[in-house]
Amino acid sequence: MEIRGSQVMITGCNRGIGKAVALMAAADGAHLHVVNRKSDPELLNELTNAGAASVTFYSLDLGRKENIDQFLKETQNLQIDILFNNAGLLTGGLLENQTVDEIYAMLQVNVNALIHLTHGFLPRMIAAKKGKIINHASVTGVMHFPCATTYAASKAAVIAFTDSLRVELKGTGVTTLVLVTPGIETDMYKDIPNRYGKNIDLTFMKGMPTKKYAQMIREAILEDLDVLKPQGFSGVGVLMAQHAPKLFESLVLKRFQR
Known about the structure:
Elements: E1 7-11, H1 16-27, E2 31-36, H2 41-50, E3 54-59, H3 65-74, E4 82-85, H4 100-128, E5 131-136, H5 149-168, E6 174-179, H6 187-196, H7 210-222, E7 227-228, H8 232-243, H9 245-253
Parallel strand pairs: 1-2, 1-4, 2-3, 4-5, 5-6, 6-7
Helix pairs in contact: 1-2, 1-7, 3-4, 4-5, 8-9
């Protein structure tokens, strides 16, 4: 699918992967619809200077259902070509040490809000017989590490939702892309050792620059892929978790301690 000239909506693009993809889409001449919790004039200037055909900002707290309802009502006449559900929250650590409140908040943003926004914009795409839904999952949706219980559950849900939707949309002109994202050099990625590090050895972690991953996403959009799989070490890990789960578990347990 073409990016140039498309109406592209991205949630959570004040930093990290979302910002890198927004800058990439801007450089390709897209009309950007930026959805963040707070206004960011500096980001708007960056996107405009990067070449965006236009930039529209929307302030939205994805943590509340009623806010999303109101947002969809206010944008009911907006036609989006590409919806990138990127916003997400991280949870981690032994399950008993995570708070129920933070688990609920994470599931609301990572799963409920993603489905809610897709549900809102999808009928317009189907009516136009074109569009792409991009959902941000993670290797943890496939590689089930200890200390990642709740976060992995959210990302497994994103993978399952997107894959089911992909089949459901056959013949409509609307397609999906799920990102099975490996470690990327973001603030969230840097927070993983703080949450998991007490119980699991993470010395194997190595992140990819956001700009490089944004270019991979760009190619996946242009080639109309259904899934963007990880490469290298993470790619091997995903294959092992899928096809040799007992071996994967034994290797993980060597790095884990209560």
